[in-house]
Amino acid sequence: MASGIPRRLGAAVAAAVVTALTLTACASAAPESSGDDGEPVTGGDLVVAARSEPPQLNPLVDQMGGAHVLTPVVDSLVWDNGDGTYGTWLATDWEVSDDARVYTFTLRDDVTFHDGTPFDAEAVKVNFDYVADPANKSTGSVAKLGPTAEVLDEYTVRITLEQPESSFLTLIAAPYFGIVSPTQLLDDPDSLASTVVGTGPFVFDEWVKGQSISYVRNDDYDWGPEGTHEGAAYLDKITYRFLPEDQTRYNALLTGEADIVDYIAPEYAEEVKADDRYESDEFLLPGVGFTLHLNTRTAPFDDVNVRRALLTGIDREAIVKSATFGAYPVQEYLATTTPDYKTDLENVIEFDADAAGALLDEAGWTGTDADGYRTKDGERLSTTVPYADNDQLAQRTLEQVQIDAKELGFELVLQPVPAADFSQRLYTGEYGIMPSFQSEATGMQLWRLYGGDNVSDGSSIGSNASFLADAELDGILAQARASADPAARADFYGQAQELLPSLAPSIPLYSRARVVAWQPNVHGVAWDYAWPQPYLFDAWKN
Q1: Sign (positive/negative) of CA torsion 195, 260, 536, 67?
Q2: 21: which strand partners?
């Protein structure tokens, strides 16, 4: 087990250079603080301008909208250093079996939940039992692994997975597996719709729907992740204000309404980074960036030639440059910052409109209607594309894709839907193309999104939005997930990345940079690499 700590945003670290974007990686020095006396100041309220509001506050169920605002109130078993190593947190030690199926954790014995419930092995077991119960409809990867928790003694718990998963520590380090009070889970689970009880440095205070959520300091806290400061948080209070409009969020920085602004939109990113009135940092999010998942269960995408045609027939580079103002790089099937990304890809997706047209001809779409769209047997080549109506970047991107698709004779019908309802489309399959963005610091994302055993089937919830089921790919992914040897795992995930363009279950477009800016009197902001997102335990103001 290797130790590590959160990196302070803005620290000098080794750089990863990506097309059109230079991004920082992790370091091994403690978060630095600065001030009149060189010491952090206790007290003060911090306002964070957040892009989206969670639909509810149960981190064990909601793996999307809620986790980004729950980090102040829940802790995880381990801390992800972002470089393949892990630091201690609620767990002080762990052992992993050779087959990557059995994980045994030794826990801290001095932790208490906000409701007074002791943290122990039984509390961890209740959390895993909750996730493993299909009735709770957890959308996370951990649920799909079929975990069984066994209490070995008061502070030792063993987790056995139905199937091997070498990325398990990364999965449970993320805020969407923050440990929740067993009293709340067992006695009042419905309350998780509007409040959450964890062990974190802040305690839930108030949620004003449509406006904000706030937390106040947990004065008893003294178990931050390895490398952070001892004792309670410095800040008295953290308030997340929900500002979905990109310009409104940016204006909150300029006016001082917000101390920290998360997700500076690409059109403002360069301006903010060049403005010496503010501090800022950015991180190219790992995992699978903004991607168009093609529903292989229904026409026309049940035909691989149609999928390949759309994959190669749109100019991804031009689309991404236009939609993101040149701020984000074009992506293959994994972001370059993802562990197990294959750096020497041979099967790279290239734009070729002529080849795409030939594939559509081969698929039988040879007719043309009065509007210039291709037809077959009197039917227009057309599909629907729902997207969250508050996602301006997604809208811009899809409008560019729509233009290129029309040049191929392919109609894309864009359907804005309420953000709260958008994710439900994944479970119903009511779409031709599902645009989505998935950030997770592991190559396991390829299984999450393309594994044949990770498909929603009515009785379980999966995240395979293309509904792809390919025996060769499934075999490769299974070997990757069972490989405890990092080199072997990387080789298998590399094979998967080479294979995916021929299957064309989706169209990867761009990796997203998370640009965060803050006022000059804010210090100690760090990255939580498991998501990744800002981590505010060490933050303070002067």
Answers
A1: positive
A2: 18
**Matching residue, tokens 């080849």:** 355
Ramachandran class of 52: left when φ > 0, alpha when ψ lies in -120 to 50, beta otherwise: beta
In this structure, are residues 152 and 122 in contact, taking their beta carbons and an 8 Å threshold? no
The CA-CA-CA angle for residues 293, 298, 303, to 5°, reads 80
For residue range 194-241, list pLDDT tens digits in order.
Answer: 999 999 999 999 999 999 999 999 999 999 999 999 999 999 999 999
Place of tokens 């009042």: 188
Pairing of strands 540-541, 522-523: antiparallel
Angle between helices 246-255 and 266-274 (to 10 degrees): 20
* Banded pLDDT at 65 (limits 50, 70, 90): low
Tally the C-alpha atoms within 13 A of residue 251's C-alpha that lie toward its C-beta.
6
DSSP-derived secondary structure letter, 338: S
More reliable by pLDDT, 68 or 244 = 244
Q: Is 407 exposed, middle or buried (0-12, 13-18, 19+ CB in 10 A)?
A: middle
CA dihedral sign of residues 340, 341, 342, 343: negative
Measured distance CA(367)–CA(334) in Å, rounded = 36
Spacing of C-alpha 22 from chain mean position: 20
Cis peptide before 300 (omega within 30 of 0): yes
Cβ atoms of 171 and 78 within 8 Å: the answer is no
Q: Is residue 425 within 8 Å of residue 431, measured between CB atoms?
A: yes
434-452: burial string, b at 16+ Cβ within 10 Å, e else: bbbbbbbbbbbbbbbbbbb
Q: Which of 90, 163, 97 is nearest to 132 (CA)?
A: 163
Contact (Cβ atoms closer than 8 angstroms) between residue 294 and residue 507: yes
Contacts of 407 (CB under 8 A, 6+ apart): 313, 353
pLDDT in tens, 450-474: 999 888 665 555 689 999 999 999 9
Q: How far is CA 446 from CA 338, 340, 454, 509, in A?
A: 11, 11, 11, 15
Rounded to the nearest angstrom, the gap between the alpha carbon of residue 314 and the centroid of all alpha carbons in its chain is: 26
SS (H, E, C) 22-61: EEECCCCCCCCCCCCCCCCCCCCEEEEEECCCCCCCCCCC
**d(C-alpha 17, C-alpha 246), whole Å:** 26
The position carrying tokens 């997203």 is 512
Q: What is the DSSP secondary-structure string of 235-246?
A: -SEEEEEE--SH
Q: How far apart are CA 10 and CA 527, in angstroms?
A: 10
CA 312 and chain centroid, separation: 26
pTM above 0.90, yes or no: no
- Residue 50: closest CA among 194, 264, 323, 237: 264
Beta bridge partners of 517: 261, 280
